[in-house]
Amino acid sequence: MVFVIILAIIGAIAVTLLLIDSLWSLFQLVTSHLMPFFLPTEVQSLTKKFGSWAAVTGSTDGVGREYARELARRGLNIVLISRNHDKLRNVAAEIEKESGVKTKIIVADFSKGAEVYRHIEEELKDIPLGILVNNVGCQYEYPTQLCELPAEKAWELINVNVGAVTMLSRLALAGMAARGRGALVNVSSGSELQPLPLMAVYAATKVYVRSLTLAIREEYASRGIYVQHLSPLFIATKMNAFSPRLSRGGLLVPDAHTYARHAVAALGRVHDTTGYWLHGIQYFFIKVAPEWLRIKIGMYMNQDFRNEHFESVRSKAH
Fold first, then answer.
1. What pLDDT, on the 0 to 100 scale, is given for residue 318?
2. pLDDT digits (tens, 9 = 90+) for 278-309
3. Catalytic residue among 117, 142, 202, 226
4. Which helix or strand (DSSP H or E) is residue 103 part of?
5. What is the pTM of this model?
6. Which of 24-61 are b and which e, b meaning 16 or more Cβ less than 10 Å from the residue's Cβ?
C-alpha cells in the first residue's frame, strides 16, 4: 500500500511538472508574440538600452539581411559580417540609403574555422558593440543520411553553426560586461526540439546553440546583459532551397522580411521566442508531443522533402 502511495505521489509530481513546463511555454508564447501589439512603441529605444552599434552575421541574404535592416530602421549603426565582399557592400549601401545610419563590413568565411576570428576581433576592437545577432548558419543541401553527408559538409555545419556562435559570443560578451549593458541574440531552430533524422548534424548543432545560450544567459545575468534564444521554424529563404514548397512560403512559412519584423519587435522584451507568432503556436504543440513521436514525424517530413528535392532535380533535367 505504501509503495502504491509513493508511486502515486511520484506520478502526481511528474504530471505537475509537465503541466508547469507546458503552461510556462504557453506564457512565453503569449508574452513574446502579443506584447508588441500592446506595446507598439519601444518604452526605451534599443540604442539607449544597449548601445548604438549592432553586428549581424550571415547578413547578406535572408533573415540576417532583413534583421540588419530592421535594426537600422531603429537607429542602430550596423556591422555586417559575411563571406561575400560584393554582397556586403551592396547591403551596406542599401542600409545607409534607407536609414541614414553608419555601416561597417567584415568579410569572414566561418566555414574556415578558427582562423577567421582574429581578423573579426581586430575589426571590432574600436566599436562599442551593443547588440550581436549570431544569425549565420549552414544547412544540408537536401535531407540525407549521415554516411551520405560529405565530410566537408559535416565540418562546415559544425564550424558555422557551432563555432561561430561560440567564438563570437565570447568575443562580444567581454566588452558588453565591461560596459554593463548589451544584447546577445543567438538564432537556433525548431529542429532543436528533437533529434532529426536525415538532418542529424544540423539538428544537433541547434541543440548546442540552445544549450550554450541558456547557460551564458545565467552566467551574465548579473552583468546587465540581455541574452535571447531565438528559435524559428521554416522560413522561405535559401536555407530551405531543397524544397520548392518551402521556398514559395505561406502563412506558416513567412518570408525573411516578415519574420525579421516580428523577431526584432521581441528584442529586449522576451528571452525565449520563435520570433513569429504562428511559429510560436507550432513550437508549443510540437513540444507537448512525446519525443519518440517527434522523431518519427521528423523522419517522415524529411523523407518527403528529400523526395521533393529529387523530383525537382529530375524535372529541371528534362
1. 72
2. 999 999 999 999 999 999 999 999 999 999 99
3. 202
4. strand 103-107
5. 0.88
6. ebeebbebbbeebeeeeebeeebbebbbbbbbbbbbbb
- The residues of the chain scoring below 50 in pLDDT are none
The whole-number pLDDT of residue 204 equals 98
Cα–Cα dist 230/239, whole Å: 17
Sign of CA dihedral 47, 48, 51, 57: negative
Is residue 257 a contact partner of residue 211, using CB atoms and an 8 Å limit? no
Q: Which class for 12: exposed (0-12), middle (13-18), buried (19 or more C-beta within 10 A)?
A: exposed
Q: Are 247 and 240 in contact (CB under 8 A)?
A: yes
Catalytic annotation present for 202 = yes
Classified as helix, coil or strand, 173 is helix
Distance in angstroms (rounded) separating the CA atoms of residues 162 and 166: 6
List the grid coordinates of 269: 522584451
In sign, the C-alpha dihedral spanning 196, 197, 202, 205 is positive
Instruction: Say which amino acid occupies 37.
Output: F
- Identify the pLDDT of residue 4: 58
The pLDDT, as a whole number, for residue 316 is 84
